[in-house]
Amino acid sequence: MNTEVLTLNEERNVTLTTYIQDCGEGFGCVAKRPAVLILPGGAYQMCSDREADPVAFAYAKAGYHAFVLRYSVMDDCTWPNPLNDYEQAITLIRSHADTWHIYEDKIAVIGFSAGGHLATAAATLAQNRPNAAILGYAVTSQHVQACNPNAPETISAVDRKTPPCFVFATRTDSMVPINNSIDFMRALSDNGVAFESHIYAYGPHGFSTCESSIQDTRPQTICSRVPHWVEDSIGWLKDIFGECTLEGMTDPLCPAHINDNYLDYLTVDCTFAHVMAIPEAATLLAPMIDALIAGLSEQAKGMSAAFDDSNGTSMVSDMKLRDLLAYGKISDDELKALDNQLRQISVI
Amino acid sequence: MNTEVLTLNEERNVTLTTYIQDCGEGFGCVAKRPAVLILPGGAYQMCSDREADPVAFAYAKAGYHAFVLRYSVMDDCTWPNPLNDYEQAITLIRSHADTWHIYEDKIAVIGFSAGGHLATAAATLAQNRPNAAILGYAVTSQHVQACNPNAPETISAVDRKTPPCFVFATRTDSMVPINNSIDFMRALSDNGVAFESHIYAYGPHGFSTCESSIQDTRPQTICSRVPHWVEDSIGWLKDIFGECTLEGMTDPLCPAHINDNYLDYLTVDCTFAHVMAIPEAATLLAPMIDALIAGLSEQAKGMSAAFDDSNGTSMVSDMKLRDLLAYGKISDDELKALDNQLRQISVI
Amino acid sequence: MNTEVLTLNEERNVTLTTYIQDCGEGFGCVAKRPAVLILPGGAYQMCSDREADPVAFAYAKAGYHAFVLRYSVMDDCTWPNPLNDYEQAITLIRSHADTWHIYEDKIAVIGFSAGGHLATAAATLAQNRPNAAILGYAVTSQHVQACNPNAPETISAVDRKTPPCFVFATRTDSMVPINNSIDFMRALSDNGVAFESHIYAYGPHGFSTCESSIQDTRPQTICSRVPHWVEDSIGWLKDIFGECTLEGMTDPLCPAHINDNYLDYLTVDCTFAHVMAIPEAATLLAPMIDALIAGLSEQAKGMSAAFDDSNGTSMVSDMKLRDLLAYGKISDDELKALDNQLRQISVI
Amino acid sequence: MNTEVLTLNEERNVTLTTYIQDCGEGFGCVAKRPAVLILPGGAYQMCSDREADPVAFAYAKAGYHAFVLRYSVMDDCTWPNPLNDYEQAITLIRSHADTWHIYEDKIAVIGFSAGGHLATAAATLAQNRPNAAILGYAVTSQHVQACNPNAPETISAVDRKTPPCFVFATRTDSMVPINNSIDFMRALSDNGVAFESHIYAYGPHGFSTCESSIQDTRPQTICSRVPHWVEDSIGWLKDIFGECTLEGMTDPLCPAHINDNYLDYLTVDCTFAHVMAIPEAATLLAPMIDALIAGLSEQAKGMSAAFDDSNGTSMVSDMKLRDLLAYGKISDDELKALDNQLRQISVI
């Protein structure tokens, strides 16, 4: 392994610590690896060592290259300094993809607390976004400004291009209220972004990997399931990135978006509501929907009510068009033809 | 084990299946056990066997008595029939606490999909509430009426007396949108109710215990972490109820409420914002807060801004009074005196 | 689920308790299931309830039909009464394979302590052997006769037809010394039988499923890994039997024998030593071995010493012929021809 | 973290790679840490990188300092060169206990395959033994000399001073037969040494940490439980060493020896057979045993036969004297007096 501390900004004391693993034939091992960029917490007043090395080791064990960014803090934390530090770090890492044997489109950020805020900013506001984000007891809205008066809340910045997120926290966190995580999930949901989330029953703020050498792990202090986030986040990254094997990366099992609503045009994998909101598409679909309802069996007759979206909670509004039409007798060819027509219709 | 099918309502075909385990000296085992009441799903059109026996076995293995309620469905599901079925079942179970060797204040409901809706109704609207609720891909708001036109959404019914909840679902559930779970969590959070939650990256609706004999468990179909909800919910119930041991129940590790806001009076374990909203209490506290701010070190000076709650996101508003005052020089006696004074102040 | 207590022998008070799960289309579920036959412990003086129901629940949860045999104890335990009870039970179960929807060749015994002794007897001495055996802190040699003066030790009875075994115990068991498990494994190894084994660092005898309602589970009493045997044994049974899915059983991942030495004739999947011990086969193979050694690269030249079996620890003696010959240039056709010739050679 | 490659022997190309973690107040973390010394495998022809860094990361994650010893191989592997390399490494590490912040009596070796052979040699033959040994598919007897013609088998070297061992392997390992592990366990058992062991149903040799970046982990290749050895060995080390917490090491939960037979004198925690083998002690105990048998209840009368050790399998021979006498009416004072007397009796 090659560990080194690279100075990104001498004035603001910004550094990138590398944990680059051996690769290639000589090692009898994988040719390239995915990577994680770790953003420790510390209320923008410090970068906590407790959320640096231990996290790097966990991901190194799982086969990832790891990087720790110590971003601008204290007087230097004025926004967007920390975000600029991130941009500089991810750009540097991606530009070394070849020499460091990194899959440049398989790089996740992992942020804790204030570092979690920076990770959500990277996932929503950055030019050079990560491919996934792991967010530990992250500040997203409440208390952002108590940490960093100029920094933006990031929930409203979540968009259709936000990468998949893994969100974890303890419900009783008394430093960062749990709504920071819940409301961020809601925004991910509203934008069709893939995510996984674990909110554990109880435990303090700032537990990092929850090893006994870092955190008081007695059951009266912290719930026994909290340490699972480490293995679960690694498992989740495999679902999102694919598995790093001796034959290369396998195909991901979980797509980054739960439907095609994030695209700039329509497809049959957009949701019914998303498609019907575009008048041109609604006109195109109308006869198919009528046929679909007409063809419903007596048993499923009540389902036609499901299409009534007057109160915004239509049962089918969130279904993909593909799944919805499958209830009728649409052929593969018809579906393909429809998909082609929809792809001509752009979403502003 | 004693398994029996009790008829609760012949007309509506409502039954309670019992899985009552051996207890007592003769068994060389525990004297009493906690219990679970299982509410299978099925869109209020049926009670799915897939979410009945297999769930009972999982909890029986963990030492619980189990009950499966097959509530009113199809034409009989008109609200509040299913809720009445629940009331009848829980009342019956609690009235048999002695003969069946049940801890009557350690009974959790476990509901799936539409049964999850019924479980949230039990936790929020019932006369005879459960002591905890486990909610699997539960319908709480969206699609309630598509299943059962007269049934209420339950999110707005969450209150300070709602018991602790364990919420799980898959993010890609195409039958019950994930917002049903997220918004329910938000309501629990807003009411100070303890909860744990696991939203898994991907998988279909209705996976039950996710055993291969019930659900296609291939990785392309469902995320490998989904089956963890079973063990995790059992672990969580132990945190909430205590552990059932040969010497009786141990003390719970996780309280049912994260602060005392749920009480009808104030205490030092209420949140700052909750206490300050009562004018009488605000007056009482004013000098202490002033002293606290005055006593803050130079370093923490900025913190006084934290008390400014003009935008509703004050950093201290969610802190317990006890924790907040600990930053000053309040003595144990002073805290106790304050607590006594607060307990005289009632919250309507 | 259908639970019933069947009397197998009224005089000796032998019963079989059934936990037969629903099957078939109506259930929207699996058509048939594998099964376990549980043999509780109790020093042949009793059949412990602690090792009956709780074990049945664990396997029922995993999709298995379960049966508990309460065999002859106390004055009735004279050998071979308990073994006859087993024979009667397994015969009854297999004869009901159709009505009870059981895969009749996917039935495992699970025995604890003295019940573990009976399980090893079933696996080695019975007419009607099980398809796998799970052995918990089983008595196999030491103390057999202290429990049951007429009962045989079972280690010397292990043979090539013994089914796969899963062996677990605690190293500090003060009732049944750990050599009972170690020596049984050695016998399985010597007979080419597949097995898995977990010996945990510390803990008492008789922990059953290690649930807190059965066993003091505090860390000072019992090692935290002990409860893993339950899930691990279920995972192992899936490897041995295949997985019970909605489409039927999948193929097993782990064969019951690690090579073909258990057959009554030779194959290329027998070990080198096993084949060479038959003069007719040794003659047949001689030229191939010479060619193999001659063809070894300079680098691997030392390996020819590996063939020298004078001290019985030749490096290749335990290799399958197929794997060994793969080091040379043998073609698929030649291998197939050799296999056909070997299959003509019988092993007494 | 401080990673460095120290040359131990330039001529034989022996190196020690360090992974020394931050410690002390400045880190807001533990003051000292336990350590592991990793011995990669490679048939004494190489030191495999696959069993070096990945193992170090796993233990670094768990809070351990890690060291990788690349010992003498190929022409330099003549015994006792590799053992001398180990002695040099452990001596160096222990001599730096203060500067590197290591608990010098909490150092485990972890060896794989041929490195596992070296680890067993360290545990049995070295001057400067480790405090625990983790042995992965280790060569202990069969094939030792095929790897290293001068090296000794280590099973017969196991003695009462051998430190606790954690033994793991796959049952189907075709390179190192499973008897290497089974027979080593038997020797540990015979010498009263604490151990834990996991033999997994199937899988190839040399899987290291079983991460997908190192090993083909498809279920048809390797049993899904194999990767558990990593977490299980870490859990076991905590049982043996105690837990490394912010307040220092906790007390171990599992003693290094299962009884006091390993001492040079007798105690009441020696086994009955061990004590009775010393004539002086047998004379001392005789009246107590007579009283014990006389006092047995009618029900337990048969137990007196348990004391008959004519066939070496007496039921009580492996019981600690303390546990055995507890069946009688011995007082704490009497037990203490007996213990004092026994401690005067030396075992050669």
TrEMBL record, chains A, B, C, D:
The keyword Cytoplasm does not apply. One of its GO terms (molecular function) is hydrolase activity. The keyword Mitochondrion does not apply. It comes from the Bacteria. Residues 32-128 form the BD-FAE-like domain. Keywords: Hydrolase. It holds the Pfam family BD-FAE. PANTHER family: AB HYDROLASE SUPERFAMILY PROTEIN C4A8.06C, PEPTIDASE S9 PROLYL OLIGOPEPTIDASE CATALYTIC DOMAIN-CONTAINING PROTEIN. This is Alpha/beta hydrolase.
